[in-house]
Amino acid sequence: MNTSKPVDPSDLFSAKDLVIVITGGGSGIGLAYATALANSGASKVFLLSRRLEPLEAAAKAINPSIVHPIQCDVTSPDSIASAVKVVESQVSHVDVLINNAGIIGPDHNQVNKAQSIREVQQVLQSDWAKWDTTWQTNTSAVVGVSAAFLHLLDKGNKRRGWVQGKRETQKRDGSASYDAHDQRTSQIITVASIAAFNRKITAGLAYTASKAGAVMLGKSMSHFLAPWGIRSNIICPGRFPSDMTAGGATVFPVNEIPAGTQGEYEDMAGLILFMVGKSGAYHNGSVQVIDGGRLSVMPATY
Ligand SMILES: NC(=O)c1ccc[n+]([C@@H]2O[C@H](COP(=O)([O-])OP(=O)(O)OC[C@H]3O[C@@H](n4cnc5c(N)ncnc54)[C@H](OP(=O)(O)O)[C@@H]3O)[C@@H](O)[C@H]2O)c1
């Protein structure tokens, strides 16, 4: 390693010139990403979710010339295909896709308080139909949306001078102009959850299982997309303020969250800039746990 090279943090942790697609994004963690990325040099940030109004409000609040709302249901292949067409009509490529959309699913928390085996049975069998929508949104959509954007991620590699298509060695196209210090290839980031590793029921079993599935799919993509030069990494947040967690506790004893509180905007902003910046170029198939130490004090598999 050449340690005499100067390190410029503003270049290393920057979203400069990146085209980024985020599912979800009108609230919570997706909005935090959109804000941090648009304010750190991204050229375009497309926000995809079902409700247009929060997306339009986000674009207006951040910067409407950078942030573009697109109505899209990530559980519908037709809706995803329409969103891809809108993105394609505005840009030639995508550098980063963030699979962030998610729902909480049926609540099984009451199992922890049940006083009889009958009660445990009732809780486990409640809202059975909601398992399907939870899986479709949190798990199947990770593959469905990623698949739909692969050709644009491939073109993102071309923009940074990499050869396109299937390869045996990672190499630059000699005729292209590129920044030799920028080793990034296109990237898919999947927002799963520490629920994927947590054995204690804090949300729902469908949520836990769907997020464990999302982690595995993120890892799997890093394997089968390797010959195509597209990276895949995973973020597993602990508790952060959002529509999903609104009304819940914000302060916690250290035996629940050692940091004492839920996470904040700066925590997510710092992580996403590290991941999309040159700083994250060597990350592929990685899982970034950001939870204030919560998994350390829970029965967990991580
Ligand atoms: N906040 C936390 O503590 C926490 C912890 C761990 C993991 N996470 C994960 O972080 C991600 C973001 O959640 P959040 O906490 O920021 O909650 P949030 O504010 O409720 O955001 C979820 C986003 O997903 C979108 N969405 C849901 N279903 C969709 C669908 N079918 N198609 C398109 N978009 C859809 C929602 O928009 P529409 O309703 O308009 O579609 C919304 O923008 C989720 O994957 C969540 O599981 C959150």
UniProtKB/TrEMBL annotation:
UniProt-recorded name of the protein: NAD(P)-binding protein
Biased composition (Basic and acidic residues): 165-180
Family membership noted in the UniProt record: Belongs to the short-chain dehydrogenases/reductases (SDR) family.
Region (Disordered): 161-180
Entry keywords, A to Z: NADP, Oxidoreductase
Highest taxon of the lineage: Eukaryota
Organism, scientific name: Neodothiora populina
